Inverse folding.
């Protein structure tokens, strides 16, 4: 039985994805520090971060004396990888433009880690989606960067906004790129004995 | 030079995609009759329908004496294919449930045709995206069908709404499944001599 769902992330994209699935949930952003070694393999990296984020919220609520036995806590983390390197959020517009120049006309991978705590049981895993960008001109890159959209986005683009036309082909779960692998989410719930039909309100 | 963009489709999904690309456009739904032989290969089928839809709007406006030399008219059509058969919109809830039962735990293909008229020059083509559905229980199918979401949707699902979690993997352009292959759109504009930077308002 589930009577409470908590998204341990402040990302508006992840919030939109859970809303799309018609879930009723609350947002309690994790305060976990992201201090995992960047040399870790990306799938392991995002899984560990997703776990840490969910665990930090769980520990915090339990320290307050809250009973979480019927609660699901969702932790997520997403990174973009190019040529073996993890590319995070751009520190400024120049780095965003450089990143998009590198991604243009080539393939990169997006990894999202997902961790679900249900009471004291946990499921965690990661999904990889490969993305092929079309050729993007310097002019288009700068116009996009100046729009502000790359700011705060791993890989400097948002596939669900004006960056949509960059991806000419993807292989994997689309929503994994946006920040939450929805199909894995439903399958992980099932492993925890939770049927999506019992929590989705449509 | 482009001073007017017309979407020859009443589909709210296609409208949303063009809005996402920050285009300023008007909607003039095509009144073309969809009388193409269903035996036609799907890529050819959607390309021909997209062409017919755009052409009907072009002819109608020209008959009124409008000058379309700086206008782009966009025609689109999308179908879902399973095992060589074209699956259209479900006529009722029972057909929607049957369709989803067939698509569960297997692959299908989505074809979108796109036709662009710019003055008297035309570009047309189609994209295919392959989609793998996870296993969906009978209970989940009926809950989804009863929500009304499958109505009016080719293949009886909406990947950009609650149907998102059905697709565990896609191979191709995501927006092609929603109804308008955005990357092909930008590349076709380029062939017509139009830079997306000159028409996108971001």
């Amino acid at each position: 039985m589930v009577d409470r769902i908590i998204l341990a992330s402040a990302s508006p994209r992840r919030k939109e994805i859970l809303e799309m699935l018609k879930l009723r949930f609350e947002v309690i952003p994790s305060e976990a520090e992201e201090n995992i070694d960047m040399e870790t393999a990306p799938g392991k990296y995002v899984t560990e971060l997703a776990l840490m984020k969910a665990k930090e919220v769980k520990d915090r609520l339990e320290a307050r004396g809250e009973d979480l036995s019927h609660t699901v806590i969702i932790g997520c983390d997403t990174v973009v990888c190019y040529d073996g390197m993890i590319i995070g959020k751009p520190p400024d517009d120049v780095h965003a433009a450089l990143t998009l120049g590198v991604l243009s006309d080539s393939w990169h991978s997006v990894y999202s880690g997902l961790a679900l705590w249900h009471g004291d049981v946990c499921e965690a895993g990661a999904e990889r989606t490969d993305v092929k960008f079309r050729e993007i001109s310097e002019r288009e890159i700068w116009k996009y960067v100046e729009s502000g959209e790359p700011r705060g986005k791993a890989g400097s683009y948002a596939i669900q906004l004006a960056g949509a036309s960059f991806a000419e082909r993807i292989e994997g779960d689309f929503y994994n790129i946006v920040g939450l692998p929805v199909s894995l989410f439903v399958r992980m719930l099932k492993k925890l004995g939770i049927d999506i039909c019992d929590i989705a309100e449509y």
